[in-house]
UniProtKB/TrEMBL annotation:
It comes from Nocardioides ginsengisoli. It comes from the Bacteria. The lineage of its organism: Bacteria, Bacillati, Actinomycetota, Actinomycetes, Propionibacteriales. This is MarR family winged helix-turn-helix transcriptional regulator.
């Protein structure tokens, strides 16, 4: 085992590794990293059209507009009223990716943990997030 490192180091490292490996797994299916991140965010609900770039930029960087246009062309997102939302095909694509390549990364990441260790880890991370102000109703 390596020398003890602070919580922030492990959280940053884990976040980076998970992001990279999920993006690689999703890109192998033909969807760009930006496209996956936009789909994943829109799976939580629509985004007001005027705020798409602002709200989705953390998920897709400067490629937001291009990613949304590409997903719209592919029939995965649509403009509905004043919002950008997933279509039924978009929801199906997110589920397919979550159940396939994304789940494979999660399984690889946690394969050395038994169920109790996994539950303790997730519970502890949630407690840390709550201690820092995370509120489930407004943060997801």
């Amino acid at each position: 085992m390596t020398a003890p490192r602070p919580l922030g180091y492990w959280l940053t490292t884990l976040g980076r590794l998970l992001d990279e490996q999920v993006a690689d797994a999703v890109e192998a299916t033909g969807l760009s990293r930006a496209g996956w991140q936009v789909l994943s965010r829109l799976a939580q609900g629509g985004v007001v059209h005027d705020r798409v770039a602002e709200l989705l930029a953390p998920f897709a960087g400067s490629d937001v507009e291009d990613a949304v246009r590409g997903l719209e062309k592919d029939g995965l997102v649509e403009h509905q009223g004043n919002e950008v939302r997933l279509t039924a095909a978009g929801h199906a694509r997110v589920a397919e990716l979550q159940d396939g390549p994304v789940q494979a990364v999660v399984e690889r990441a946690t394969e050395d943990l038994d169920q109790q260790e996994y539950d303790v880890l997730v519970g502890a991370l949630e407690k840390v997030a709550r201690s820092l102000g995370w509120l489930e109703s407004v943060s997801d």
